[in-house]
């Protein structure tokens, strides 16, 4: 078995923990816990930088950091990590929760919830500029269901120009 699944699992776990656990506290002796288990895991999985925050009752209890690559500095408890696409499973969870509560029907056309179409932003991550948008009201969207979008089978093409 290759180390990739382990490396991927460790990276996902660390990123999920970090995305909700940012801290700007000054580091003290109570901020770090025993690093041995994390250190062993990152070395074995060849993960170059990892941090795990423990939160109990809405309070940061400890932050453990480790580096598993020679020549890489160990991250600090305040290090920032790129969270990649962690929003996708969180969004899917929210949609499934709404479906369970009867608010959304997974097999309904997405246009039931967007009766006027939607606005497509060409560069939504650049708030410093005027964001170019266009109205999308393609009739083919009537055949696309929420379930299809969650399964990535809606065949929605990117409209970037």
List keywords for this structure.
161 residues; two-stranded antiparallel sheet; 4 helices; disordered N terminus
Summarize the structure.
The chain is of the alpha+beta class and 161 residues long. The chain is built from four helices and four strands.
What report would you give on this structure?
It is a single chain. The protein is an alpha+beta fold and about 160 residues long. Helices cover about 30% and strands about 15% of the residues. The protein contains four helices and four strands; from the N terminus they run H-H-E-E-H-E-E-H. The strands form two sheets. Strands 1-2 form a two-stranded antiparallel sheet. A two-stranded antiparallel ribbon has the order 3-4. Strand 1 (about 50-55) and strand 2 (about 60-65) form a beta hairpin. The model is unreliable at about 1-5 and about 10-35 (pLDDT under 50).
Low-confidence stretches: 1-6, 12-35
Shape: elongated
Number of helices: 4
Quaternary = single chain
The total of beta strands comes to 4
Structural class: alpha+beta
Beta-strand residue fraction = 5-15%
Widest sheet, order of strands:
1-2
Sheet having the most strands:
2 strands, antiparallel
Q: Which range best describes the helical content: under 10%, 10-25%, 25-40%, 40-55%, 55-70% or over 70%? A: 25-40%
Between the first and last Cα atoms, what is the distance in angstroms? 42 Å
Radius of gyration: 21 Å
Mean pLDDT across the residues is: 75
Order of helices and strands: HHEEHEEH
Topology:
Layout (H helix, E strand, L loop, with lengths): L3 H16 L16 H10 L4 E7 L2 E8 L20 H14 L17 E4 L11 E4 L9 H5 L11
Antiparallel strand pairs: 1-2, 3-4
């Amino acid at each position: 078995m290759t180390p990739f699944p382990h490396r991927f699992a460790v990276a996902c776990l660390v990123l999920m923990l970090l995305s909700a656990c940012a801290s700007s506290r000054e580091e003290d002796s109570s901020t770090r816990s025993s690093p041995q288990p994390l250190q062993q895991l990152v070395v074995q999985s060849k993960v170059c930088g990892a941090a795990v925050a423990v939160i109990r009752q809405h309070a940061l209890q400890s932050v453990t950091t480790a580096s598993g690559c020679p020549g890489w500095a160990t991250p600090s408890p305040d290090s920032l990590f790129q969270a990649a696409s962690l929003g996708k499973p969180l969004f899917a969870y929210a949609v499934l929760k709404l479906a369970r509560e009867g608010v959304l029907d997974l097999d309904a056309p997405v246009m039931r919830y967007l009766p006027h179409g939607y606005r497509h932003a060409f560069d939504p991550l650049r708030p410093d500029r005027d964001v170019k948008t266009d109205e999308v009201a393609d009739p083919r969207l009537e055949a696309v269901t929420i379930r299809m979008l969650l399964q990535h089978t809606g065949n929605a093409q990117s409209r970037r120009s």
